Amino acid sequence: MAALFRSSLKLRPATRLSAVRTLTTTPHLRAAEKPFFPDEPTAPKLATAIPGPNNKAAAEKLDKVFDVRSLNMLTDYTKSTGNYIADLDGNVLLDVYAQIASIPVGYNNPHLRKVAESPEMITSLINRPALGNFPSHDWADILNTGILKAAPKGLNQVFTAMAGSDANETAYKAAFMYYRQRERGGPETEFTEEELETTMKNQSPGSPQLSIMSFKSAFHGRLFGSLSTTRSKPIHKLDIPAFDWPQAPFPALKYPLEEHAQENAQEEQRCLQETERLIKEWHNPVAAVIVEPIQSEGGDNHASPAFFRGLREITKRNDVLFIVDEVQTGVGATGKFWAHDHWNLETPPDMVTFSKKAQTAGYYYGNPALRPNKPYRQFNTWMGDPARALIFRGIIEEVERLNLVENTAATGDYLFAGLERLAKQYPEHLQNLRGKGQGTFIAWDTPKRDEFVAKAKGVGVNIGGSGVSAVRLRPMLVFQKHHADILLESVEKIIKQL
Amino acid sequence: MAALFRSSLKLRPATRLSAVRTLTTTPHLRAAEKPFFPDEPTAPKLATAIPGPNNKAAAEKLDKVFDVRSLNMLTDYTKSTGNYIADLDGNVLLDVYAQIASIPVGYNNPHLRKVAESPEMITSLINRPALGNFPSHDWADILNTGILKAAPKGLNQVFTAMAGSDANETAYKAAFMYYRQRERGGPETEFTEEELETTMKNQSPGSPQLSIMSFKSAFHGRLFGSLSTTRSKPIHKLDIPAFDWPQAPFPALKYPLEEHAQENAQEEQRCLQETERLIKEWHNPVAAVIVEPIQSEGGDNHASPAFFRGLREITKRNDVLFIVDEVQTGVGATGKFWAHDHWNLETPPDMVTFSKKAQTAGYYYGNPALRPNKPYRQFNTWMGDPARALIFRGIIEEVERLNLVENTAATGDYLFAGLERLAKQYPEHLQNLRGKGQGTFIAWDTPKRDEFVAKAKGVGVNIGGSGVSAVRLRPMLVFQKHHADILLESVEKIIKQL
Lengths: 498, 498
Known about the structure:
Chains A, B: Its cofactor is pyridoxal 5'-phosphate. Chains A, B: Belongs to the class-III pyridoxal-phosphate-dependent aminotransferase family. The structure is a homodimer. The first copy, chain A, has helices spanning 4-9, 53-63, 98-101, 110-117, 119-126, 139-144, 164-184, 193-199, 224-229, 234-237, 261-281, 305-317, 386-401, 404-425, 449-456, 481-497; strands at 21-22, 45-46, 84-86, 92-95, 157-161, 211-215, 247-248, 286-291, 294-295, 301-302, 321-325, 351-354, 361-365, 431-434, 443-445, 461-462, 464-466, 470-472. Chain A is of the alpha/beta class. Chain A folds into two domains: 75-108 and 405-496, Aspartate Aminotransferase, domain 1, CATH 3.90.1150; 114-401, 3-Layer(aba) Sandwich (Aspartate Aminotransferase, domain 2), CATH 3.40.640. In chain A, the strands form five sheets. A seven-stranded mixed beta sheet of chain A has the order 5-13-12-11-8-6-7, sandwiched between helices. The first copy, chain A, has a four-stranded antiparallel beta sheet with strand order 14-15-18-17, covered by helices on one side. In chain A, helix 11 (261-281) runs parallel beside helix 12. Residues 1-19 of chain A have low confidence and may be disordered.
């Protein structure tokens, strides 16, 4: 028995077997394929109604000290394996939400366990460096064999950060400094007395009224700068002061794409034109445009590679930086390591931000002029966390060892075909199916979305939504065709209950 | 031999002994005291000029991919022990800067090593949760036995974050939501259509023009909201758009305090009056005032407990929230666990933010109304990192086991007395000595500050500055009297070289 997981995990029995209802699937439908993790459950297991008594009690306890109103489920990570997530009542669900799209190589991945037990990890955890001042002797190696090994084409440097929001905000800061440096005439030009004085009062010209342009329905984070570029839902933004920054329209494509090719092309053209107009005319000059390859939180909104190539051209033509936010799309989920690899850009983005599946964060860049002209302009105490950088290195190794990008592309195609069949069968419940050729980064609209998502646990699946009416699939990179079979059957079961 | 460190560390010999110059100290000056870490070096060791050849080569390599212009020294953390930091050339320095005040219990602390090797740590590292949605079964326990065990008096809840900047910014967000909720008439009042629409355009009333008040010379972080409250140095702020928020004057006290009691009280009174005037008159209404107990990055500026009590009264009287930023002062360094414990407040601060020595971050609060009225208003994917929360728990355990707050208070008094003697001897080089009774959180001004800090490594000490002319001491909580002796001798050696 190839007990790779079991031996290193010392798994307790996942559920009390007497009470367990294992959700079997129709055998002839199951794709035959070698599982990445031999000890993964073969199907979800339901032991109680969800949430069960243990989960309810634990939530009540946690609520005393920690806001649990956004709680989905208390999780027993020691009992979660591969694509399966366990709660505290013996329920084990197929997880296609994966910690809001942030788990890449499965729960309790044995290779990551080795990384977590390594001497480098121990020293990173107990001797946390101020990376800008006192990086460790092996920090260059950790970067070169990890974060930078995965760097997008054309970008060979990194500024490390903690999470998606500050990754984006530090990229914005780099963009503003670059913009003003160019206005000043280069890195050698000193700041004026007026700049030095006004910035201490938060006033222009020292604190200039420049802007970052984002797109309608975009999500780029929740801190003050990133939230000013987030345009997905009012609930994220209400009551929080924001910068007077512009938003461009994002294409609203019609599906199926092949039936609306001309309309969609026109729609994208309209959005590009409006984007360029806003860059030229917005009263607070635009230093950079930021865009997600697929708007995720905002409802899984796609645009074509031609649209993004057009955007790159516009930013070039108007001397505006082009930032691609790959926080949710990055690290393999779309069937390429970076989603913007689908675009065939002539010149790379100026900056690419990452987080989530990378388990660490930051922005990549290539142009040396994006390093601010003086030290301590882009700086903070920790500037990321080497412990999490080591985890990303382990993830990259696992992606290579198991060919997980290729797996995700192939599994995604298989899953998409299955969903297309279901969409024909249940057109009312599976509208605007999208993400074809984008790995497992697949979504559709459904009129009873919240009900759909809520009922999913009852058939053994943990699934998420995005935007107002979309079901978004965000399985891990270790999601295989036999998992897709279970998911497809589960989707049908849910639809039949609606 | 009580080889607690050596056995768990498997330390390689720290330096090539033949080349090493051990900096011995005058024996009769050394305080007799049981060292916390028997295997800590007894004195700094210098093997090369600093930076040595290995450090230079490593810096050159790192610079290719990572901006190293703020580099202080490449560090070999595997060879660093307790209060001593090692570089790549065999130099071992007494570290009184401690990763910008963020290492509390010594390099390679054996208890933290055990925490790092624990099953809870491994699972936290390889199964990173989205804490708001899928917290682990033991998250309440981890909080209650860790972060919340150390909670300031009167504050019993926490919102966890990644680092100081987002800890402060999420506290600001809570303050803005609280302010607007009160204006609306309570948590039950629904948002208006106008609010929902305008916030998507970053416009008032949905995105209101409210403000956070901070103080001149304050430092609260470097993201867009926190940077708008940072007022320490132009280099942090230049070229970055900022909110139109007010800054109040921070008292400029004269030293020695006992010789300027009346003047200083008047100065504090003046600042309090101006603070209240700004709260009443600033065109963007003030939702909260944030203050550091000791302005750290801004130059180690102190104010009296009476000043802070006055501030608490003003905020109460004007219905403005009072946020205490304990990112640098918290976790024992001032001889109390929280620096604001020195103030004897009648009512606790509304929020207290923490990071650095906690090795994780967030804000504490007590008033349940500071939880936003709906879920997902204060939220992000990770909301901190349980791995780092486990480290903080280990730090708290170590602080308790070794009585490190008491140690820091006593060592601080001892060190301060020694510095007072030096100040009498070298009044030109040790001006405005401050931090009496504040543990080891001690600083002074010196006309040749940068030169002083640069020369420190040559006598075996790693030391930092703050503001324009201050030398700031930020030793760890495991800094003992025998370390203070070495530091005092080193300070004198440096002064003699100036």
